[in-house]
């Protein structure tokens, strides 16, 4: 099974290749809207590669990247066994997104007693961001399957 650095290298190499291909296919022109979509996808891909990976169910370098906040992943580690449902291409990523999303929104709500009505991000960008996380997670699983 590939190590942490192999996963990161693979994911970023694929991302660079896809970016170059999309740039060439688009005729070397990017509108402001396309750039915003690309940035949302890139941010999700980065988070999915370095922070919300299938390896959050074991003591790994990914867990260490969370620093003191790694304790929020302890229940996740207890619930999911490594290489099983957490390494499902779609299901694993969706569960991790829901898990961290509930925690973040719950903490935010407890602090401010409401959600911010004037700072809501367009749902299109949120969906693209989540797709970036799921793609990065899927590539992690694919690489684990190949080796």
Structural summary, described in words:
The chain is mainly α and 147 residues long. It has one domain. The chain contains 6 helices and no strands. Helix 1 packs antiparallel against helix 2, helix 2 crosses helix 6 and helix 5 packs across helix 6. The chain is flat. The model has no long low-confidence stretch (mean pLDDT 86).
Give the topology.
Blueprint: H1 4-25, H2 32-50, H3 61-65, H4 74-79, H5 91-112, H6 123-146
Helix pairs in contact: 1-2, 2-6, 5-6
Structural class: mainly alpha
Low-confidence stretches: none
Fraction of residues in helix: 55-70%
* Strand portion: under 5%
The backbone outline, from C-alpha atoms, is: flat
**How many domains in all?**
1
Q: Biggest β-sheet, characterized?
A: none
Mean pLDDT: 86
What is the rounded distance between the termini? 5 Å
Radius of gyration of CA atoms, rounded to a whole number? 16 Å
**Helix-strand topology string:** HHHHHH
Total of DSSP H or I helical runs spanning 4+ residues: 6
How many strand elements?
0
Produce a short descriptive summary.
This protein has helices at 4-25, 32-50, 61-65, 74-79, 91-112, 123-146. The protein has 147 residues and is mostly helical.
């Amino acid at each position: 099974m590939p190590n942490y650095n192999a996963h990161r290298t693979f994911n970023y190499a694929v991302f660079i290749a896809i970016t170059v291909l999309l740039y060439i296919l688009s005729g070397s022109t990017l509108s402001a809207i396309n750039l915003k979509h690309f940035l949302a996808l890139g941010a999700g891909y980065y988070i999915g590669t370095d922070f919300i990976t299938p390896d959050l169910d074991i003591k790994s370098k990914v867990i260490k990247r969370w620093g003191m906040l790694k304790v929020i992943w302890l229940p996740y580690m207890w619930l999911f066994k490594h290489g099983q449902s957490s390494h499902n291409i779609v299901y694993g990523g969706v569960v991790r997104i829901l898990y961290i999303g509930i925690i973040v929104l719950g903490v935010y709500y407890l602090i401010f007693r409401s959600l911010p009505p004037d700072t809501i991000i367009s749902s299109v960008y949120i969906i693209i961001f989540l797709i970036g996380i799921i793609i990065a997670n899927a590539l992690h699983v694919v690489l684990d399957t190949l080796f």
